[in-house]
Amino acid sequence: MDKLVGSPTEAVTDITSGSVLAVGGFGLCGVPFALIDALLSQGADGLTTISNNCGVDDQALGVLLYAGRITRTISSFVGGNKELARLYLSGALEVELTPQGTLAERLRAGGTGIPAFYTPTGVGTMVAEGGIPVRYDADGNVVKTSEPKEVRVFDGQQYVLETALTADFGLVRAAVGDRHGNLVFHESARNFNPLAGMAGRITIAEVEELVEPGEIRPEDVHLPGVFVDRVVVVGSEGKQIENRTTRPRPAAGTDDFAAPAAAGEEATEGAA
Questions:
Q1: Together in a domain, 268 and 179
Q2: What span, in angstroms and rounded, lies between the C-alpha atoms of 239 and 32?
Q3: Which residues contact 252 (CB under 8 A, 6 or more apart)?
Q4: CB distance 193 to 25 below 8 Å
Q5: Taking residues 258-269, what's their average pLDDT?
């Protein structure tokens, strides 16, 4: 029952080239940075990643992209990564685009053993009808497109059939975990992390804080330990902020924001 491992390096040691990875996070929120960095050092390549997005330029999954380790990605958003666009359009990366809610449900279905499901999302579009470019060649020609999907009518409405997603490994980041693998995610980091953890045949969790079994109330568990195989403690250092913003602070005794911010007063967004 004790799933604790000593380091991120030890945790990813058996991820082999060609593996399929389900990776938690949204932008830079809730991303398993330590596991990704350890995987970069470990050297596995030819990877397929399933994630909401494929990182941003040279951060999160972007570090694996820049190193040429990812050859296929299944994502819902790829617009925040110039390297991904370059690799995709030059034929070095295969991209399967999936609507965000559909991607979430495909992962959840994979984690619960449901092979496929029907959804109205994408009916009447290229999502259902096929033709979305999946792979280009080096000259910029489309050489592979998405296939048409089955559409059925239920109660007078059309639905498209979507298949479940599973992965060889799930990589997630949690705020709190115990040795049995029970995990709690902080606020918006509870986005794709539980789903990626469910979909992985072997799920590895990096946690900021380790507590003893029983300290997390059952009703507070976001991902039960039955889905988690390894736990590694990484602390809270190293988290990134995707968009840093500032705004003026209100002057004393006022309710408006006309006064300039005092030195060092800064608002930030995007950290988790």
A1: no
A2: 9
A3: none
A4: yes
A5: 43
